[in-house]
Amino acid sequence: MTIMGRLRADLVCGIGLLTRLPVGGLARDDLPYSMTRSIWCWPLVGAGVGACGGLLYAGLLWMGIAPLPAAGWSVGMLLLACGGLHEDGLADMADGCGGGRDRAHKLEIMRDSRVGSYGVMALVIALLVRVTALAAMPGAVAVMAMPVAGALARASMVVVLWRLPPARGDGLASSMARLPGQALAACMVLAAASAVVLLPPARAVPACAVAIMAALVMCRFARQQVGGQTGDVLGATAVVTECAILAALS
Prior knowledge:
This protein has 250 residues and is mostly helical. 74% of the residues lie in helices and 0% in strands.
């Protein structure tokens, strides 16, 4: 298998895993797909989705739409593109950690597809922070800030995946317990490069610092609450990191 073929397979796998964008036409039966190997491209996927959101926001401002509704439409487009995957994880983790008696009970609640009061509150806060932070940005700033937030948020998921053991023996996250070193390094480099290339130094450094702090806080919180990482923990990490970065850049 050629290097380009492997990179193509990783990118298709990453897009299919993190978004609801149709990638069936790009898939090939002769290419072996690996979710763990695809982590290198997660920042690229996040940056691409974020760029679309930033461009939509800037375009709506150019058309004369007020910043707040323009930001609402932009964030709504992000949710549509990703299928609310990360938000679902945030809601499940909030319900589990807020209402569970112990680790086993918290993990049981997180498996439940129903959304409770803690999940609703977490979703409302997350949407409110992102919409208002985006609305505080000029269009030119948002076009650069949104891809960076998307890239760093997905890299923070990889940090949690790398630093924490699986909280349960089944599920998607448990199958990604061992990450390839080269893919992990490439993920971190691409995430940092997105901030350095798209943002001035005065904004790039704080954005990276906020992403690191958010990832570490989520690592500690998840370890204390459920003993490790799950798919819901990863999704919650992405949302929390993105909210923190957009707030810092606003």
